[in-house]
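tmp note - Alkaline phosphatase
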Amino acid sequence: MAASAAAMGGAVSAPAQEAPTKRPAAQRARNVIVFLGDAGGVPTLNAGGILAHDRPQSLFIQSMPYVGLSDTSSLNQWVTDSGAGMTAIMTGRKTNNSMVSVVPDATGATVTPLKTVLEYAEERGLSTGVVTNMKIWDATPAATYAHVASRKNKDEIFRQMLAPRFGNGVDILIGKGRADALASFGARQTTAEQAFTAAGYRFGEDPALIAQAGRAAVLRDADFEPIPAVEATVRQLSRNPKGYFLMVEWDMHTNDPQKGLRHVVEMDDMIRRISAIAGKDTLILFTADHSFGLRLNGGKRATPLAEQFAAAAAKPGATVGANDVIGVEDGHTGEEVIAAASGPGAEQVHGFFPNTRLFQVILAAFGWSPER
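out:
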């Protein structure tokens, strides 16, 4: 047996020390896309996926690598509305129901505007976009660019849409509410087309405008094909070397369960497609502003769920609420909703947290610090 160096009287050398390694710096996002499923709580996602694919956890959203649970309560209510829910995500502050990117004082008599993620992006020269299948002035899209004490104040929301506090305002707008815009601007002795054109937009009803202009406002009163519209928006916004911020809202309210659950699959398909083309420098975040009173009550695996749901709905006396397969109590609910993410900064989405943390996740992904 060989003798050790110490036994032979030789010097014992110290074990070699490994050179310290630097932890690689977290990659920053060039772009951030927030997909907001309005009323897209966990029960709705679950039922929507099974109804469409007849297997659990079949949505692309459910394969995203980082997932957490977000509290949705507002400043003054346990169950939020979309105004307060989206305000928390866009500004990092909770506010009262019906308020949009403002916070009330102690008495509630006055409100103070809160700076939104979109406004941070505009201030820094990024391109910005808002796409929704709801009205463009509704609470969720409005919370990205407007500041009002009441979400119902559509005339003031339209005014602020074209009078931004930072940058030149949202670069690409797609949504419903064309008739509302015509009425709102008409009351000011102008037309919607004149007002948007004066603000530098190409204005019209055809989403094909997005590919033709860096600033476009597509307002309609009819549905549109979501994937081509969002894909065109991403390609247009990507032309800015500084990056972009995009918010896409899709309505998932299930007071009409067939419609709401169809929208779940539409948004899921949209996220799958955009995740494939957006690039590795893009943080993609899905969440909901609040949940909804839908429950998957029954159904056998051997038969397509859609058939069982339709059969239950056809029974004498069946209602949307009293359905043995998928029942809906029409109203918002207060349980946590999921936040699912991929891309730079996505690892910050985990565990239980307030919805205000998503604002911090987005800013940190960009490498920005929130203002005090």
